Give the backbone structure.
Amino acid sequence: MIRELQGRIWKLGDDIDTDIIIPTQYLAINTVEEMKQYAFSPLREELAGLIQNGDVIVAGKNFGCGSSREQAPEIIAALGIKCIIAKSFARIFFRNGINNGLLLIEAADVHDNCSEGDTVQVKLNEHITCNGKTYAIGKFPDNLLSIIEHGGLVKSMIRKNSGARR
């Protein structure tokens, strides 16, 4: 069960919409694996190639706004991002993110007090630590945590249903 994680921060601003996460012109590419190289390209063309497995995005307000395209959180997960910490999330992105196995945490002060390249530690249901400062976070509901731990909603339901038949 996910209890603690740490990763290098990639810092993004406010109103990062789904067209920034994955521009429309790349949606015709056959697989998420092939699409992921274009993630965040309107903002920072090189960013997708720099992100490593286990890194964390720290963003401002309204992360994931715009259209409800499910490819946006899929691509972020495919890049290896394990957690996004933001001041706030667009509601539909929040649920799409959970459904794709992303841990999404709202924490208002982390963005203003941490820099890109810093290491952030998350102790689930307790706090976030960055640069010696600790930021309290709310409790993550067990049902959503279970979905994240199983790699997303579909995988969670397959696991749940196959276990029910045994």
